[in-house]
Amino acid sequence: ALQLTSYYGLLCSAKAQGCGFCQRYSLCNFSYLLHKTDILMVYSSIYFVAGAPRSNYTGRVVVYDVDSQGNISIVQSQRGEQIGSYFGSVVCSVDVNKDSVTDVLLVGAPMFMNDLKKEEGRVYVFSITKGILDQQELLEGPQGSENARFGSAIAALTDIDLDGFNDVVIGAPLENQNSGAIYIYNGFQKTIRTKYSQKILGSDSAFGKRLKFFGRSVDGHRDLDDNDITDVSVGADGNVVLLWSQSIANVSIIASFIPEKISLLNKNTEITVKICFQATFRPAKRDNQVAIKCNATLDADLQSSRVTSRGLFKENNERYMQRDAVVTHSMNCLSICVLQEPSDAVNSLNVRIDIGLANPGTSPVLDTSSPASVAYSIPFIKDCGEDELCICDLVLNVQQKGDDGKQQFIVSSKNKRLTFNMKLRNKKENAYNTRIQATFSDNLFFASSSLPSDGTEVSCQTATSQTTVICQISYPVFRTGQQVSFDISFDFNLKNLQNMAVLSFHALSESKEEQELDNQISLSIPLRYDAEIHFTRLANINFYEVYSGHNIPSTVNNFEDIGPTFNFSVKVTTGSIPVKTASVKIHLPELTSKDNPLMYITAVDTDQARGVTCQVQINPLQIGKRPYSASFKKENLRAVKELNCKNAKCSTITCKLEDLMLKGEYFVNVSTRIWNSTFAVVSTTGIYMKKSIPKYFLVPDALQSSLKRTFQSKKYYIIVFVRIENLNQEVK
């Protein structure tokens, strides 16, 4: 790891070893051959490598040897893979394991373009066998949408991390908008790790100013500050930067717990977590120490963490805790108290410990090979035999309460709740975190749950999804042979009418279930809705009395010539069940069987602004606008006890009520005249009507129900039938 220090001047770095020898020879068959050269030490043989970045437009690397007479022979020629990539402009041989034998050759192609047509740059890693290059892999460098020219400078470093293997530094002078960057890659065995261990930008604030073309040249062979670690020199435009290397700390973490296992008999167990740290340092010095930050997280492993924790730290009542520590060669420990309330008593309570530097840049760095995170588990005492494997057998039974055996449930404002009795029994070993999960259609709401009579703890809560409720049963353990009975209720959502109420009940636990088939029950309940539409009427007369001696006018000039008024109002009242559209049909006896007129409609008034409209013929004879010559036939009505639409001809008033509001009132006012002349010529002994007027109420076909209402009244001589229909054809 490198500490940033800047010096002004110009860095001229050239690898001198073998270069003078190489440049005494000429290879005329390769254009621009001697751009960069290096030596390959392969056991008893020495090979030379030279780069020709413009050869054949793609660039080339040539491996050759020279005999004692100075004759040159080509061993291998390796071409680049992209035109203009400048492959071979930089070559660097590396003895990774320090055995004086070249292990890999790094070849730079700094102008290699990515898919975005940016000069990202590329560095190839070749292994060497008897002077033959074999490409192994590519080093991971810049990943972005800008030019970087990664691989413009490459230098071997003398074991900068003191792990026994030499390392590599690579420059990318155009990265970060020409500010530049360098990458450190660590050696391992006989190769270079493809993932960089450190990246330093030329725009780092430690330099005091934004550098330009940082990484255009690099070098790292000497310890310049006498701390036994190689330092790195980096060239930039008009500047040179010396990067002091820092010592390395390998921190080990050991955690222990008191108690070692969690008892379920006490729901609020207090646990003491003891975390100990110890470090080794490279280079080893007696006064070495490293300041770290320790982050502890409950209910988290190395891959993920639970949404909610089953424990909290006593100090801050949170699942996260941070402490500072100074780690040396000696063991250093700290203790943290945890309060545990497990919702899952089968899976162990996890504690993840993450460490990082407290003061980066001013103390030793952490070894990349040592874990920055470790996870520990605190198991539960399960009381499930020696194998600690709990195998339960939950049996669930669900019964609808108040079920009278009818196939359909009628929903009304007074009957809008479904209640179910839940019975759960455990036939085998302990079941931990036992619960019943109820999922229901969105025309229901969870309303309430009852407490078991035996005192068993049951708690029901709506889940994140509003159509799921979870009931915890005898938390944390539902023991062998234990059983429980309680009720759960649902209310209907009257804003979302559906044909069915669908529910599914599932008994679950964290133990292993032996028999799944008796854990689930699904119910589909057909529904009908009482729309609760009512109507009443008010008339101006309760009976019509026929007098002898009525004059029979030959011409009717106005309504007064017809006879007395018979006015009535029909009031429709809606209930709590939504009804979008309804119709009211009023049937009035208009003519006798011999076409003598009975009633004559003169007006129908409605509140059209509230969506009430009627279809009817009003004053079809245009009385009042022109004279009407009336004629009447003698007729014997002695055998007729009542005039209705079966023995008389009726006219119909059809009214549509739209966009009905809940608990609203709607009126239809009808004005008529009774023809005196008809009753002056017919023979009667007294015509009566029934003491009731039937009202028919139809609900949608989708709900398949019909209800009848009967309204009491006094005696009438003429029957008026009123029929009201719900016109909703579909319930959604």
UniProtKB/TrEMBL annotation:
This protein's record includes keyword Glycoprotein: yes
Example of a GO biological process term: cell-matrix adhesion
UniProt-listed InterPro entries: FG-GAP, Int_alpha_beta-p, Integrin_alpha, Integrin_alpha_Ig-like_2, Integrin_alpha_Ig-like_3, Integrin_alpha_N, Integrin_dom_sf
Subcellular location as annotated: Membrane
Keyword Zinc: no
Swiss-Prot/TrEMBL keywords: Cell adhesion, Glycoprotein, Integrin, Membrane, Receptor, Repeat, Signal, Transmembrane, Transmembrane helix
Topological category with respect to the lipid bilayer: Single-pass type I membrane protein
One family name in Pfam for this protein: Integrin_A_Ig_2
Domain Integrin alpha third immunoglobulin-like: 554-680
Repeat (FG-GAP) residue spans along the chain: 72-135, 136-194, 198-260
Gene Ontology terms for molecular function: integrin binding
Integrin alpha second immunoglobulin-like domain span: 384-526
Entry's family note: Belongs to the integrin alpha chain family.
Name assigned to this protein: Integrin subunit alpha 2
Organism for this UniProt entry: Pavo cristatus (Indian peafowl)
Organism ancestry: Eukaryota, Metazoa, Chordata, Craniata, Vertebrata
